[in-house]
């Protein structure tokens, strides 16, 4: 990764951010005598030599939009969020959050142990989460106490956890830990992914804490989905209701992002996208697959 690389570090007790060289953090991590509790959760290393030694699980690679729909010849680099190294010392704590853009997560504990507190992304819980996020003192309130059910899960050394779309979670580190993980967007829960994105907009989450190129990636995903739907319709294949709901949500989002004044639009539409043609084809193929699946709006 490079010892001189500057990384983002969280001071857990102060709940504040600081930046330091990786070599300085390693020195801190290796010293059992510590005056601070520091936590690293955002070191993405896809462009480093370490990348060759860490491979996401097959299912994550197979589903990941950034891997599968981002054009190789597109001038902007694809979002690199598939490979993170998380380093936390004992008593590190990450408060309740939803991973950016509602992305799913793979999370492998290479060393140590993690305790997750998990809340299902029901409509009621998501409404409570937004209310909690908008409180100026929300870090003083344990979100798990606001909901009907908060699950505790211990992830031990050598175990891998998958966090589905939208699950609200906090993470406690009971012993010094080293974790590898990554994020990915996919076809299986587009409706909820977009709902989480809208929560981020409503809560005014800083751009640097959002999924990079989120809207651009959805335009490219829509191109691929049109191809997939066309193939399914040619065979008269049925489609799961959740996938159809996701396509409806995707079509609505893309349409809204074509409106300049829409506050949710934060990225330019890729020049290669023929917007009217794409939206028309997506709508047409959606109607056909709804008919084949005996589903309608």
CATH topology of the largest domain: Jelly Rolls
Number of helix segments? 8
> What portion of residues belong to β-strands?
15-25%
Mean pLDDT: 94
* Corresponding CATH architecture of the largest domain: Sandwich
Q: For the report, how would you describe the main beta sheet?
A: 9 strands, antiparallel
Any idea what the CATH superfamily of the largest domain is called? Answer: Cupin
- The helix-and-strand class reads alpha+beta
* Structure summary, number of beta strands: 9
Counted up, domains total: 2
N-to-C series of helices and strands: EEHEHHEEEHEEEHHHH
Shape call: globular
CATH class of the largest domain: Mainly Beta
Which residues form runs of ≥5 with pLDDT under 50?
none
- Indicate the radius of gyration in whole angstroms: 20 Å
Indicate the percent of residues in helices.
25-40%
**What is the terminal-to-terminal distance?**
50 Å
Protein name: JmjC domain-containing protein
Domain JmjC: 45-201
Pfam families: JHD, JmjC
GO molecular function: dioxygenase activity; histone demethylase activity; metal ion binding; transcription coregulator activity
Descriptive notes:
The chain is 34% helix and 24% strand. With 297 residues, the protein is α+β, with helices and mostly antiparallel strands. The protein folds into two domains: 6-190, Cupin (Jelly Rolls, Sandwich); 213-292, Methane Monooxygenase Hydroxylase, Chain G, domain 1. Strands 1, 2, 3, 4, 5, 6, 7, 8 and 9 form a nine-stranded antiparallel beta sheet that branches. Helix 6 packs across helix 7 (241-257) and helix 6 (214-235) packs across helix 8. The longest helix is centred in the C-terminal third of the chain and has 22 residues, at 214-235. The protein is globular. It starts with 5 loop residues before the first strand and ends in a 5-residue tail after the last helix. The mean pLDDT is 94. This is JmjC domain-containing protein. It is found in: Nucleus. One of its GO terms (biological process) is chromatin remodeling. Its main location: nucleus.
